[in-house]
Write a structure and sequence with these properties.
about 110 residues, about 15% helix, globular, 7 strands, alpha+beta
Length: about 110
């Protein structure tokens, strides 16, 4: 069993990320693992986004893209990062035998 440590970060920390892949899961699963997302008002391209930094320094974003409503059921969520390591870390967090440790560090706004 591996341990994955991450903390939420502000949008400045994820500047320069772009789509590196997708994961098929639900909003509730993501919220259970990563905590509450940042929610966007109607008219934005995303409704929910998680901004994360892992203990190795890799940053990742998880977000929906151009939906009229917030996806609640199974959905192909976008994963952003500066390289594909971001996608690998997010995917590992969804594996049941992984020990995921969120750090309770509030993102600096």
């Amino acid at each position: 069993m591996g341990t994955i440590i991450f903390k939420p970060v502000d949008s400045d920390a994820t500047t320069g990320t772009s789509l590196v892949g997708e994961i098929h899961t639900t909003f509730d699963t993501l919220a259970k693992i990563f905590g509450a997302p940042n929610l966007s008002p109607e008219g934005d391209k995303t409704r929910a986004v998680w901004r994360l930094q892992f203990s190795c320094g890799t940053v990742a974003t998880i977000y929906d893209w151009k939906n009229d409503t917030l996806p609640r059921g199974p959905y192909l969520w976008h994963v952003g990062g500066k390289n594909h390591h971001a996608l690998a870390l997010v995917a590992k967090c969804l594996v049941p035998d992984q020990h995921v440790v969120p750090q309770n560090i509030k993102a600096i706004a």
